[in-house]
Amino acid sequence: MKILVINGPNINMLGIREPDIYGREDYKTLLGMIEDHCRNLGVSVECYQSNHEGDLVDKIQQAYFDGVDGIVINPGGYTHTSVALLDALKAVAIPAVEVHISKVDEREDFRQVSYVSHAVVKRIIGRGLKGYIEAIDHLTESEASQPS
Fold first, then answer.
1. I need a surface site. Which of 72, 75, 119, 134 has the fewest CB within 10 A?
2. Residue of 27, 78, 100, 115 marked catalytic
3. For 2-144, which CATH superfamily applies?
4. Is 48 a residue of the active site?
5. Given a cut of 60, is residue 40 above it in pLDDT?
6. Where are the domains of the chain?
């Protein structure tokens, strides 16, 4: 199984940006946690981060051609603004799980809207970095339950 983990704007600033909201662990820690977990599961994983919407769209589209089986996506601020990310996820039709480190549903009103939620199989919100592990587990368990 191949999983692509996509992180949008400012996720690379973990540990620096608003640590009271996003925690004190840095982006490198997140990547290590994801890679270790996937290695233990025997799952191939690629992690990608960009602050640019078009780059994220390109990466989602490329996932289709690369034979990716599942996408974990934290679109960051693009969650609330990007129809382009929604359309890219719909276009590739790869099972995707939306992850948010913070409890976006308890924050500012504008954070209540998630465009990408219309194209994902599950949303994991407010579980910190552990949300990524839960998303990977959901995708691998879903894949395992598919008929061969």
1. 134
2. 100
3. Dehydroquinase, class II (3.40.50.9100)
4. no
5. yes
6. 2-144
